[in-house]
Every structure is written in C-alpha cells, then in structure tokens.
Write a structure and sequence with these properties.
The protein is mainly alpha-helical and 51 residues long. It has a domain of 30 residues. Helix 1 packs antiparallel against helix 2. The longest helix has 31 residues. It starts with a helix and ends with a helix. This is Phasin family protein.
C-alpha cells in the first residue's frame, strides 16, 4: 500500500486556506453589516456572513 503523504498534506493545506478565506470574508461581511445604516442592507450583509 502506497501512501502519498505530500498529497494528503497538500489537500489539508488547501482546505485550511479555504476555511481561513471563508472566515475572513464572513468577518468582512459582519463589518459591513455593523456600518450599514439601512436595516435591509444590514440584514443582507449579516445573511452573507452567516452563509
């Protein structure tokens, strides 16, 4: 049985990078929501952050 440790690590690194990017984007959406004066816009940004 051959194990490709480098391939497994590469896949993990890509998943971690993607997760970090999603957290950053969610934080940016929460920031926009907190700055929005319009309730509809604020809820839209909050929904994007949750998703």
């Amino acid at each position: 049985m051959k194990i490709d440790l480098l391939g497994d690590f590469s896949h993990y690194a890509q998943m971690t990078s993607s997760a970090q990017q999603f957290y950053k984007e969610a934080a940016a959406c929460r920031e926009e929501a907190s700055r929005s004066l319009n309730a509809v816009d604020r809820e839209g940004w909050a929904k994007l952050a949750r998703e």
